[in-house]
Amino acid sequence: MSKYNNTSAEVYNIGWLDSNHLYEKGPTTLIFKDKLKAIFKRERMNLVRGRHYCQLCDEPKKIVYLEMQDGKSHMLGISEIWVPNKFFTKTFSAPDLILHYVDYHHYLPPQEFIDAVIDFDLDSDWFGKSVVW
Q: What SS3 state is found at 125?
């Protein structure tokens, strides 16, 4: 976990993976995965015009899509997911590819991030865009 650049707010990077660095692997719960998908639908931040490919997959420059239960698919690698801890004292920034990393590469994020995802109230009036830059 490292501090997010370009802000004085307490924002921390989670899940920015590549093939040159080891990362923690392990199982995650369906509750965590489902909640992370719901936050993805609600809290996409910093959409970009290009894309980031999964560097962990065997296929180079593989474009990754997330299939949702409503039948829609979303391209990953083009935005970030922001989520606060339950005290709103810290915000985590993850690439949207974290959804793919967890499902396909068994990435195990830090417990602090997992707790933040599970604890986040989807009906909250908190939005990533409200974090002070």
A: coil
pLDDT tens digits, one per residue of 18-45: 888 999 999 999 999 999 999 998 877 8
Residue 131 lies in a domain: no
What is the chain's Cα-based Rg? 14
Domain that holds residue 15: 2-123
pTM: 0.88
- Under 8 Å between Cβ of 9 and 131: yes
* Residue numbers of the chain with a pLDDT score lower than 70: 132-133
In a domain, 133, yes or no: no
Nearest alpha carbon to residue 90 among 51, 60, 117: 117
Helix axis angle, 30-42 to 111-119, nearest 10°: 70
